[in-house]
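Q: What would this chain look like folded?
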Amino acid sequence: MSRIYVLLVMLILPFVSLSQTDVTTTGSNDKVEYAQKLYSLAEELYRTGDIQEAIDCSKRAIVACEEAGMLQGVASMLLNIGILHRINSDYTQALKYLYSSLENYSALSNLGGQAMALNQIGSIYRIQGNYPGALEHLLSTLSLFEQVDDTLGKASALNNIGIVYFYQNDLPKALEYYMASLELEELAGSEYGVSISYINIGEVHKKMGNFNEALDFFLKALVLAKKYEESDIDGDSVGILYNEIGSIYTELGNFELSNNYLHRAIEIFRSLGNHQRLSECKIYLGNLAFKQGRYSQATQHYLDALQHAKTISATDLISESNKKLSELYERQNNPAKAFEHYKKYISARDSLFNEDNMKQMVQTEMLYNFEKQMHEARIEQAKHEVQMQEKANRQRVVRNLLVLILTMALVVMVIIYSAYQNKKRSNTRLALQQELILEKNEELLQQQEEILAQRDEIESKNKILENSQRIIEAKNERIISSIEYAQTIQQAILPNQEQLNKFFPNHVVLFMPKDIVSGDFYWFSNAHDQLFAAVVDCTGHGVPGAFMSVIGNTMLNQIVNEWRTYNPAVILELMHKQVRRALKQDINDSKGHISMDVCLVAIDLHKRKATFAGASRPLYIVNNGNVERIAGDPRSVGGYQREEKRYFTNHSIDLSENQSIYLTTDGYIDQMDGNFKKFGQRNLMDLLLKIDGKANDVQHDMLLSALEQHQKEQDQIDDICILGFKL
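A: My prediction, written as structure tokens:
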């Protein structure tokens, strides 16, 4: 199996010397001095490779830096902890701290720091087999490093992008990025970076079957890796090269050298406790034993490789281990086990190489190239505008001079012309009076002709209006048909009744769009032994609101189901950032009013606990004849943001057997009667008491009946959405 390794170049250590000029808020000298000492100690532990001690010290340094107002130090420490967890193969914790570091660097407008955090995140996504996510973050990394003109940073980003394409089997594309990275590293004189590019280029040749060329690159890389072994943050560069050289000698049939190099590699990986590298080395040892006919040893090596891969959820290594086990059992004439592992190999492989992944990667790269071209075009446009402005200034001076000359000439001509006209008017006055009578006669004839022409024109316009009416009716039918199709799509993304019945046998849903499609929607998910339910009110209704509802539904699924974020308050904070980012509200004030009001609850059935967070929406709880309203935060998700950072509050709720929970938008209570009086929150709370304990369909009918009695002949003014359930 061909395998490439991520050797992340730490182009800029996250630790930099901090002085009192780094303090962004006022703090005592003692606090600043204490924070700087902890910061320096954490930096030293980080560089010496004492991972757990470095993590603990970095956490203490974060607290001290926050108290001293050293915000740059906080961001650097968070990045440090994320990198240490990545080295320790704890990718969940690594992503948590890296995203927090990215957020802090963004608040400080530190582009270099953002690039380093994105580089680490993209590399972790690559290891986990999330290639579209990896490519998106790494292209963002490349863009930021280009903005700050960091040559080694660009080289690192290009190298990691090449790795993504390598694992998607696009070898020409991977080689293109590797060569671009190598060119920058040679330009910057980074021998350590050059060694990494040699390894990756060697891997491409290895996968193409050019084993001698691959061996040449690996041996050149080994010389440089040993030279800079002490500066290797991960500590596995030499081991990786031993591993690759051993695999090449297996292919070339030199089993003695292969065994020697592979065992030297595995000793290094065991000392580091690196499950990814151990899995890769075990696969190579299995290949060696397989070629030598030692099937029992090969089986054990492949099983060990599979176990290490499962420990870190490395989908690509899980796929390869199962493939090798399938081939081995087939050779041993054990078709049952061979087929079992083949199915697992296909399942893992399909999750890595699927059409959606490739489409997302192509779209991500096209978007990056488009934005890069637009940036270059804006620069050229700015240059052109400066040139045009200078030209316009010169033309303005010449024009003003010409205007002055022409004005003086015009004044002289007006005086002469006025004298001439006075004389001419005297001569022509009598002739005009004579012609007046003839003109009156001609006017009468013209009026008669105009009346006839107007009659013909009116008849023609009537025909045009009739034809236009038919065209408008046809277009109206097509528009309504399109909106009705959009309604079908919107209904498809809402939770289905089977799913709700499974987890909430006693529930009621009142979903009433104002204009066919709705800006309100309800959402449900079952993740991490918790149930999540939400009701969301997007700005607007009809087609604009429906577009926003699709965005909101997608974000909730991404944050909860893909990012595995289960804290309701944090979910709303991430959703707020995603809405502002998607609508570009930080740079476009015209979209600043667009937002979402969210009522979100997470339920732990085992602990009988619920956690609620609201963005401009409350939660209603009905229990034993009483109704309680829990207010959410008075801020929406997305929209205007005057505070530095938007936070939301969690509310913990103890659940009993008789409690009913209701999540609503403001559409129901805002409906008007004939006197333009709203239904109101008090009436809704009284109505919830009445319907509590009734059957699902009875609750639905009572909610609908109460609304109809209140509205009478008034039209619905807003979308309506209510989700209620009893545990």
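The chain has 22 helices and eleven strands.
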